[in-house]
Amino acid sequence: MLKTLSQITDLAKSKTKRRLAVAAADDKHVLEAVKKAQEEGIIEAVLVGNMENIEKIALEIDLDLSNIELHDEKNAYKASVKAVELIREGKAEILMKGLVSTGPLMKAVLDKEKGLRKGGTLSHVAFFESPYYHKLLGVTDAAMNVAPEFAEKVDIIKNAVEAFNKLGYEKPKVAVVGAVETVNLKMEATTDAAILTMMNKRGQIKGCVIDGPLALDNAVSKESAKQKKVESEVAGDVDLIVTPDIEAGNILYKSMNFIGGATTAAVIMGAQVPIVLTSRADSEKSKMMSISLAAAIG
User: Fold this and answer.
1) Which of 64, 208, 214, 271 could form a disulfide with 161 if both were Cys (CB 3.0 to 4.6 A apart)?
2) Could you count the other beta carbons within 10 Å of the beta carbon of residue 63?
3) Is 138 found in the same domain as 234?
4) What is this structure's pTM?
5) Could you list the residue range(s) of the whole structural domain that residue 186 is in?
6) What residues contact 35, with CB distance under 8 A and at least 6 apart?
7) pLDDT digits (tens, 9 = 90+) for 40-49
8) Model confidence pLDDT, tens digit, residues 212-232
């Protein structure tokens, strides 16, 4: 059980350095995070982007470029294509978003012939270190899948569980949450949760323990679960919260960061390699921790 994001960094340090390809790397906050990750001995960077801008930023933040592989490409989409190409050629093992919109980057990733598809659904998983919870808390999916169909929810859970398993969790506790902790036929989130729970019990979703539907309060609070008479191995000790759609996931993600005082690390799972896809609003620490997470599970 991990309690802090620094434990993920320690895990990444214990492994062989990973090569990180940054698409459109001419972004100050991204390069600051890359610099820190290099100083921690976690990654070796490969920067693809506008070299004139990269060199200016490097001077500002005292980033030594002499031992970094550099590829000059001023067009952000072409930089994304080049970064993906480097990974396909075995010259890098993690992809990171720089100064490029998510759409063009994902277009390069999802290209049927030259991308990084594995065949299933790509999804976002975040790990939060919160002052109000007793261990790291995962949330999926806050950034990729808008209104996932049932089969996509299965993939989303499998992707997140894979990340947990690679961090050393044998069977992470997964709560499929909704507005209530009982099955209501008028609330699709609750019926989906019940089916996902049964699939897990019958071995159709492995490597975790799933329970649902659970409301958020009884997923994270043993006292709430006790008051509502929810008997569950997951309730009050959840590792991963699965939200019904991107609106619920994104609101929870931002509430924890901007109101709840949490720090986060996040990656995109389901491609051939982990993808560090941070928001412009994410802190430098969050970006650095996301690199650590990708290196730890890559």
Assistant:
1) 208
2) 19
3) yes
4) 0.95
5) 123-258
6) 61, 62, 63
7) 999 999 999 9
8) 999 999 999 999 999 999 999
